[in-house]
Batch of 2 targets.
Target 1
Amino acid sequence: MDRSKKIKWGIIGCGNIAHKFASDLSIIEDAELYAVASRSIEKAKDFQIKHSAKKSYSSYDQLMEDEEIDIVYIATPHISHAALSIKAMEHNKHVLCEKPLAINKKETIEIIATSKRNHKFFMEALWTRFNPSFVAIKKMIDDGVIGDIKYINADFSFKTDKPLNSRVLNLELGGGAILDIGIYPAFLTYSLLGIPDEILAKSIFHDITKCDMQTSMIFHYPNAQAVLYSSFASKSDMTAKISGTDGQIHISDPWHVPQGFSLIKNHKKEYFDLPTTGIGFSHEIMECHYCIRKNQIESKIWSHQNSLDLISILDKVREQVGLKYPT
Ligand SMILES: NC(=O)c1ccc[n+]([C@@H]2O[C@H](COP(=O)([O-])OP(=O)(O)OC[C@H]3O[C@@H](n4cnc5c(N)ncnc54)[C@H](OP(=O)(O)O)[C@@H]3O)[C@@H](O)[C@H]2O)c1
């Protein structure tokens, strides 16, 4: 791709996260928010004005047909991620799709096959992987600074005030804590320790919608364990602790978008101040641009295989707790 040309983005779904993403897109020099699509033309127009997009569409299909767009950011409920990603790639567009990229492993395999068949870049928007603090933590651990990891503890829990039909609580839209927020502690552990040998998990379900409201997970490895938690029922610490044979790393609230972290070693605590650029989406956006300009269909940092592994882990958690989606 011509380096002097800006990369033109289209956004599908004008909800909560799409607004935050668009705000970070505006600080990326070689990015242009070209078009936005909503199921409602008023919503699309409001979004267009707020974020200075060139065009707005009242249907996702119209945006898919726009040949000017290089890459689509999908910010709709989980249940629609796979179908929209596949459709966008079949319309000759690269894709950055919000997490979780799909409901299960089967859908993920179809997404990856579509990316390969059409030679289109696809990445799951696992923004924490590109966060400067997380990148530094992973390097420190890979360099052996805290020795061998023996224990990880991370939670992601807050009290939701969303209505029963919201994407968060509605099973028809992929609701439930595991896929929405449990994905973060699972991601942290997978990124540092790989695929667990064994997973134990238990959930408490919503009385009416039957989505999982809170889920506790143990990931067991030959030489390490992780105790993880996600919930919509109450606020927790939202911290992550990584304990190694030679030290510890603590990430404070909200650990999934850290602005720094602490290393505790030899009875000393050292704080590393590593703020994000913008809200934190800028880092994954820059990775998309890097890969597209290099003609890569996947990121080497958060690859297709990484997404496949993570969703397979979440499939196992759901199997353990007995959570199935109607689709
Ligand atoms: N990376 C992060 O930190 C982060 C944070 C929050 C959420 N997310 C992910 O982003 C995705 C969207 O989350 P969100 O919090 O932005 O949700 P949201 O505020 O509910 O927005 C989702 C948007 O999807 C569109 N949509 C399409 N079909 C829909 C349906 N049947 N019901 C409801 N909305 C529908 C709507 O846009 P239109 O009405 O404009 O068509 C809606 O505004 C989720 O998959 C979530 O996991 C990521």
Note: Residues 71 and 313 are 28 Å apart (CA to CA).
Target 2
Amino acid sequence: MENIVKKYTNGEVTIVWKPATCIHSTICWKRATGLPEVFNPMERPWVKPEGATTERIIEQVNKCPSGALSFFMNNESEPAEETSAEAKVEVMPNGPLKVYGDVIVKHTDGKEETKQKVTAFCRCGNSGNKPYCDGSHVKVGFRDE
Ligand code: SF4
Ligand code: FES
């Protein structure tokens, strides 16, 4: 499961999904926050890129809090995996802290865990899987202001 990568294309954009990274936040498929015409886990395949415009797909993919969803344009080369030694932290609006890069997380019990590529940390305080985001910020309506 760890390295499975699925790709779905409408001929213009390719949606890339990494199941092991998905935190099942529901953001991509619930009507209030998502694009159920494209992302529908009740159906197979669960991603149907022909369901919306390329622009709308990109907008939705960029809202994925875990980095499980990404995209590349078919007329551009597929981006290489990020190999930068420097970690980058992005504060997602009304959502988690996304940390890009390989990091070691030291938990309150002293145990260490290595996380790779993209990790979403809860910023709203409501995750059932702290310190990671589990998408609960959407349910509780977390707002930055
Ligand atoms: S938005 Fe991302 S993390 Fe959430 S369910 Fe969709 S793919 Fe998984
Ligand atoms: S920020 Fe996502 S659950 Fe808290």
Note: The chain has two domains: 6-73, 88-139.
